[in-house]
Amino acid sequence: MAVHDDCKLKFMELKAKRTHRFIVYKIEEKQKQVMVEKLGEPSETYDDFSASLPADECRYAVFDFDFMTEENVPKSRIFFVAWSPDTARVRNKMIYASSKDRFKRELDGIQIELQATDPSEMGLDVFKSRAN
User: Fold this and answer.
1) For residues 86 and 93, what is the distance between their CA atoms, to the nearest angstrom?
2) Of 27, 84, 124, 125, which shows the fewest CB atoms inside 10 Å?
3) Contact, 119 vs 59, CB < 8 A?
4) Which of 31, 33, 6 lies closest to 23, judged by CA?
5) How far is residue 10 from each of residues 5, 39, 87, 102, measured CA to CA in Å?
6) Pair 32, 5: CB distance under 8 Å
7) What is Dmax (Cα atoms) for the chain?
C-alpha cells in the first residue's frame, strides 16, 4: 500500500506548526494508496473529529489532543486512531489492519495509539486517561 506524500506533509504541519487539529486518512482501493480525506482546523474540537469518522467504514486518523496536567500545565499529545467499526465490511477491515503498521511508521511523532471499533472506545475520557 502506497502512502501519498500529502499524508506525511500534513502530519508534519500538524506536529510542527499545529496548523491542523486532526487529519482523517482514507485508503483509496483503486489507487492502492493512503490519502488525506479531511483536515480539521485548529479551532475544531473533539466532537468535530469524531463526527468526521464514518459509521460503517474504516479510517486512520491523527488527533492533536490538548489537555491540562494535574499541575495545571497545558500539554498536548498526538494520537493515532485506527478506526475499524464493527459495521464495516470484512474486506475493508482487513485492508486497514494489514496496512496500519507500515502507514504508522511513515508518521514520525505519533505518541499514543488507539484502536476503536465503536465511538465509546475513543471517547474523550479515553483520550484523557491515555494522555497522562
Assistant:
1) 9
2) 125
3) no
4) 6
5) 9, 8, 29, 17
6) no
7) 49
Q: Locate 23 and state its grid cell.
A: 487529519
Whether 23 and 36 have beta carbons less than 8 Å apart is answered as: yes
Q: CA-CA distance, 61 to 49, in Å (whole number)? A: 9
Which residue type sits at 83?
W
In the chain, the amino acid numbered 127 is F
Residue in the structure block whose three cell numbers are 474486506: 91
User: pTM here?
Assistant: 0.95
Q: Which three cell numbers stand for residue 33?
A: 494508496
Contact assessment for residue 81 and residue 100, using Cβ atoms and an 8 Å cutoff: no
Amino acid at residue number 129: S
